[in-house]
């Protein structure tokens, strides 16, 4: 499935995308249980298919299976008997970040060989990890606000995965069973702020600097995440091009490594690093400016495209 968080009538809902349509999974589940004669159909729907993404992931395989059945039900009956809509056109809703407020956002630096070389670093013996916070998260239809504090705004195309169940001390051979799915992230970075200190945090966690989306492709649709093409363009110009086969530390290794350090929870987002071709490494460096359009394509996931706006001229 392609799971989305979408906004309808001012509320965030969880949906599944089928072509140009999106199913409201919670409402669809309630309608399905109602037709089956369940007395407490709304409470059952809340238990099986909650209206928020992290709640859905916490339900595990049982919730995802219920969501699939509900989607099939809704596509055959796009409206309930009492007038509640179960299916919308994509152009009727606003897509938000798949996980609007992840519990943890873990980023991996220096994880593509070509990026390590262009930044004049050595291949690390252990993953270089840092954090972003939920204030950075934006969706596929949001702009990237140009922060007033920086003069060196840069892009970073990243393949990201989302944890699907609690993970502590996971072994590599079991790691993919803990992944709910995959999405696209742009680890927008303020390079001048990043260089101020040996810690990168201040250049990485400015408001609005982590667009993600457009959806979360469930892990069953990408059984092997190790060979996916990834490209980034600015205003149509190709800047980054690689493949997840070039990761120094792949997804199973990262799940094993990270779960050995900390407990991973459903909805935690892990950004696996960026390929070569960042603006800071160009000669001379070329940074983003208001009006630029940044497009990231990852094989079997889709496209994430966001426009850079002035700090006061755009946003949500």
TrEMBL record:
One of its GO terms (molecular function) is metal ion binding. Residues 104-308 form the Fumarylacetoacetase-like C-terminal domain. Keywords: Isomerase, Metal-binding. GO terms for biological process: carboxylic acid metabolic process. It comes from the Bacteria. It holds the Pfam family FAA_hydrolase. Belongs to the FAH family. PANTHER family: FUMARYLACETOACETATE HYDROLASE DOMAIN-CONTAINING PROTEIN 2A, FUMARYLACETOACETATE HYDROLASE DOMAIN-CONTAINING PROTEIN 2A-RELATED. This is 2-hydroxyhepta-2,4-diene-1,7-dioate isomerase. It comes from Candidatus Reconcilbacillus cellulovorans.
